[in-house]
Structure formats: structure tokens, C-alpha cells
Specification:
By secondary structure, the protein is of the alpha/beta class. The chain is built from five helices and seven strands, in the order βββαβαβααββα. It has a five-stranded mixed β-sheet with strand order 1-4-5-6-7, with helices on both faces. A two-stranded parallel ribbon has the order 2-3. The two termini are about 15 Å apart.
Length: about 220
Amino acid sequence: MAARRRATRRWPSSWHRAHRPTRPAARGTRPPGCCGRFPRCGTRGSSPERLCPAQDALVTAQAVAVRAAAAEGPLVLLGRSAGGWVAHAVAERLESEGAAPAAVVLVDTYPPGHGDRGQALSAMTSDMLRRAAEFASAGPDRLTAMAGYFELFSGWKPAPLACPTLYIRARDTPPGAEPAPDWSLPHAEVTVDGDHFTMLEEHARTTALAIHRWLGAGPV
């Protein structure tokens, strides 16, 4: 999510919504930009959407969307789970373009290479689809999109950022999953109530307050 500070209190409903079928994009096709409140490639709307063909295309689209949506005031990028990879990658791009964000917030983001396979993924995926089914009918499209994004970030390693980073860690762990390993790059860390999912459900208020306190203490 990219937002000015005053907007970070609003947690997007799209985090809790199942999505429609997806299809891979042909190479060379420009994908729609997306992150948090922005449209997300491969998971938007009632008709099939194309997945981004490459990581660079995704980051470029996101960076353009972020700059257009937050032309004034301090910019904060927030990503939940693997969305933290996108937020971090977009921050790298913006810094290279001289438009650095004021801060990056990672919400229980597993480092690349840890949260994308094995038992932890199986448990998290089952819980994610169960939650999605509570809001709308869940189909294989969500797994298709998720697998596509994992492929885009295969082998990716986040680079150090000049802007400060906050890591929000869930106090609890979903059954069958493992706690997120330490984020290796410089960051501040706050642990909040809930697990990987409930920290943005019944515990969303305390999570939001933790972020606002940190932002108010200096970064923004």
C-alpha cells in the first residue's frame, strides 16, 4: 500500500476478498500497476486479468502508480506478507529515481526463499483460501496468481534502503506454519497481537496504531 500518512489508517478490503480467474500475460504486454489500494495484476475485477510478465514490469507499473497517487506529502509504502517484497522492490526503484519514500512498512513478510515453499506455505495457503471463501467463492485463480508472483521473485534479494523500514511481526503463528524468519536488512521491529492473518482482522486496530506510533516518532 502506498499512501500519505493520513491514509494509512484505512486497511484495504481487497485483502479479504477472493478474486476472479487469471491468465498469464504475453511477453511485451504492459500490465496494470498495483499495490495495496492500487489494482493488482492478475487478481482484479470480475473478468480475467493478466499477470505481470516479469518482475521489472511489475515494479515499473507499481512505481508509476505510486508516484501518480502520492504526488505530494510524505510517502509510505506498506506490504503485507509477500506483498512486502513488492513494497521493498518499489522503494528501491523510487530511490533510484530520486523519489524515495519516507518509510517502508513490512507486515509479517517472510524473507524471499523462506515463505514461498514447503509446509509453511501449505498451511498459510489453506488458511488464506478458507478466509477468502468466507467472503466470496474461492477458486484456483488465487493460487495461480500467487504462484506467478513467487516465480517473478524467484532468486530476488532485497537491497538495503536509504529510508527507514519498520517490520511488524505477528505474535502468534497459524497452526502448521513457522514464524517469519528475521528480516536481514536494517529495520525497526514491533510485535503485535494476532497471527499472520488475524493481525489485520480482529487485531487490525492495534496493528494500525503500532504503525502510526512508529511513523509519528520520526520517519514521517
